[in-house]
Amino acid sequence: MDTIYALASARGKAGVAVIRLSGPAAQDAARRLCGSLPPARKAGLRTLCDASGAHLDEALVLAFETGASFTGEPVVEFHLHGSPAIVRAVLRELGSQQGVRLADPGEFTRRALMNGRLDLAQVEGLGDLIEAETEAQRRQALRVLEGALGALAEGWRSRLIRAAALLEATIDFADEDVPVDVTPEVLDLVDGVAADLKAEAAGARVSERIRDGFEVAIVGPPNAGKSTLLNALAGREAAITSEIAGTTRDVIEVRMDLHGLPVTILDTAGLRETQDVVEGIGIERAVTRAREADLRVFLGVGEAGFSGLEPGGDDILVAAKADLGAADRGLPVSGKTGAGLAALIDRITSILENRASGAATATHERHRLAIESALGAMESARSEVCRGPDRAEFAAEELRRAIRALDSLIGRVDVEHLLDEIFASFCLGK
Mind listing the pLDDT tens digit of every residue in the chain (430 residues)? Predict the structure, then answer.
């Protein structure tokens, strides 16, 4: 493989910048800049010079040997002063060396996958960890990066392999009397894995929401105080407020961190009958987004209608404009004075935290689809087993199909078409 290099820290001025090299010629390339390398995994201060001997920087140099690095290859890191000029000079010097090239996006992590340092689910966990903005996202991504999903998949896979092996034994000895009926053990193994997979699939959608963010829609009639409430929650003037009805025409989104949960608050158009074409489009969008949201906060609940959108389930009823003595039923809140705002945030957070507690280890739609595919194959296998020993071969093939679906979770099979899409979201230094 080529030896690759890239800036591994964020671009721009900083106290420290990190440049990473990986590949068979990494250590030779590093020695051309700094003369000698410190012992493996022990940082040493070195003077970096260009090919003419001109001084580039004083840097901490850290070397990793094959099998002991992030990529599994020989790796060298330069911890430089974070001046953009220094970074450019060192990158330019590395780029001038024969057999050394700039890394593609995500290429370091891709090499870690190819060299068995990470499985595919861990790669996705790393990507999610880099993008994490809240504590819940950090915890979830770290759990996947540490191999939790791979460990689960391996356990499910082992049990299904055992079930398939039992069925294969009945096929091999079809002309003889098999001393033990394997059907009860096979069904027990299949049913146990199926129960685990169903629970994981059910929690996967919640995990996806933690990763992407929950949506909370503020809905109600015109002039109910929706935009004022949004601004109060956001702590800034995110939406235009006016006494004129119908001011909000489109859905306004504000991203927030509520007690560690990622939440997007949606301010929607006032729900009413209107002859205004543009306002009508805004109302249609408001109803659509509100129905798709994870939670709705209804303002002005004393009003009739809501264009077919009614409170239900965990939806929160708010008596808005509490500073004016609003008589609506619901939690009294004033976006203008802030009265009741903390109670509303606590109510929203409590509901979403309760849902988040059901999160699974599977965090991506790809994971959920693989699990559902495995479940479908297992249901077919169970049906074949129940039809008698003459169908053992068909049941074994269905179990193999389920195993292949689980293997795709961690990148053992059928994932080449996914790799470019996954790694395209990574930065050059990863």
Answer: 799 999 999 888 999 999 999 999 999 999 999 999 999 888 999 999 999 999 999 999 999 999 999 999 999 999 999 999 999 999 999 999 999 999 999 999 999 999 999 999 999 999 999 999 899 999 999 999 999 999 999 999 999 998 988 888 777 655 555 556 788 999 999 999 999 999 999 898 889 889 888 999 888 887 777 788 888 887 766 544 444 444 445 678 888 888 888 999 888 877 766 666 676 777 777 788 888 889 998 887 544 445 567 777 888 888 877 766 655 567 888 777 878 888 988 999 999 999 898 888 898 989 999 999 999 999 999 999 999 888 889 999 999 999 999 998 887 654 454 456 556 656 656 6
The pTM assigned to this predicted structure is 0.76
With helix as H, strand as E and coil as C, how does the chain read? CCEEEEECCCCCCCCEEEEEEECCCHHHHHHHHHCCCCCCCCCEEEEEECCCCCEEEEEEEEEECCCCCCCCCCEEEEEEECCHHHHHHHHHHHHCCCCEEECCCCHHHHHHHHCCCCCHHHHHHHHHHHHCCCHHHHHHHHHHHCCHHHHHHHHHHHHHHHHHHHHHHHHHCCCCCCCCCCHHHHHHHHHHHHHHHHHHHHHHHHHHHHHHCEEEEEECCCCCCHHHHHHHHHCCCCCCCCCCCCCCCCCEEEEEEECCEEEEEEECCCCCCCCCHHHHHHHHHHHHHHHHCCEEEEECCCCCCCCCCCCCCCCEEEECCHHHCCCCCCEECCCCCCCCHHHHHHHHHHHHHHHHCCCCCCCCHHHHHHHHHHHHHHHHHHHHHHCCHHHHHHHHHHHHHHHHHHHHHHCCCCCHHHHHHHHHCCCCCC
Domains of the chain (ranges, CATH numbers): 3-117 (3.30.1360.120), 126-209+362-424 (1.20.120.430), 213-356 (3.40.50.300)
